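Please fill in the sequence for the structure shown.

STRUCTURE ENCODING:
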C-alpha cells in the first residue's frame, strides 16, 4: 500500500477512541507529527515546530539537561517525550524534568513508553501559532496532576507565566532569567536566546 499525504491545519483536535497501546503505536508510526491526547480522549495533532522555535527549544533543553547532568537529581526530557498524566491525558511538554526517585520507581517497560507520571517541572514555549488560552489550560492541567513548577514562556508578549500548586500564575514581563526555585535547586535559565 502506498503512503498517503495529507495536509493538516497548524493544530487539529479530533475525538477518537484509542487504547493506550493504539495511541502509542500511532505516535511511533507517525514520527513527523507530535500527538497529544486530552483526558477526555481528544487527539491533538501538531506539526513539527518552525526552525526558529526549534532552535529556541533546543537551547532551553540544552540548559536544562546541562543542569540535570551536573547534579544528578533527576532526568530532563525534550519535546518528543510523552507522559501519561494521572488524569489519563497524554502530554509532551516542550521541556520537562522528573526527580530521580520517581523515575527509578517506574518499571523498564513504563520508562520505555509514555511514562505514567506527571513531570515535577514543565516548560511550554509558545510559538507564533499557539493559542495562549490553550497553553494556559495545559499548564494548569500539569499543576493539577502533580507538577511542582511550570513555566509558560510567551515570546509573543515578551513575558513568562510561572505556575505553582495552590497559587495563581505569576506573570513576569521580559525576564532575563528564571530560577528553578526549590524544585530545581541551583538551576537558572538564561532567556537571552530563548525570548
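FILLED IN BY: designer on duty
SEQUENCE:
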Amino acid at each position: 500500500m502506498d503512503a498517503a499525504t495529507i495536509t493538516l491545519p497548524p493544530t487539529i483536535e479530533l475525538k477518537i477512541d484509542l487504547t493506550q497501546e493504539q495511541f502509542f503505536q500511532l505516535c511511533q508510526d507517525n514520527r513527523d507529527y507530535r500527538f497529544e491526547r486530552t483526558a477526555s480522549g481528544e487527539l491533538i495533532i501538531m506539526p513539527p515546530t518552525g526552525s526558529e522555535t526549534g532552535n529556541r527549544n533546543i537551547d532551553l533543553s540544552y540548559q536544562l539537561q546541562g543542569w540535570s547532568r551536573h547534579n544528578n537529581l533527576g532526568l530532563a526530557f525534550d519535546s518528543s517525550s510523552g507522559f501519561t498524566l494521572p488524569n489519563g491525558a497524554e502530554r509532551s511538554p516542550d521541556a520537562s524534568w522528573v526527580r530521580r526517585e520517581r523515575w527509578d520507581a517506574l518499571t523498564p517497560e513504563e520508562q520505555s513508553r509514555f511514562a505514567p507520571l506527571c513531570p515535577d517541572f514543565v516548560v511550554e514555549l509558545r510559538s507564533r501559532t499557539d493559542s495562549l488560552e490553550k497553553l494556559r489550560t495545559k499548564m494548569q492541567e500539569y499543576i493539577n496532576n502533580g507538577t511542582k513548577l511550570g513555566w509558560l514562556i510567551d515570546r509573543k508578549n515578551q513575558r513568562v507565566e510561572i505556575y505553582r500548586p495552590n497559587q495563581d500564575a505569576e506573570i513576569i514581563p521580559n525576564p532575563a532569567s528564571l530560577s528553578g526555585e526549590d524544585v530545581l535547586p541551583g538551576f537558572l535559565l538564561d532567556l537571552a536566546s530563548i525570548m
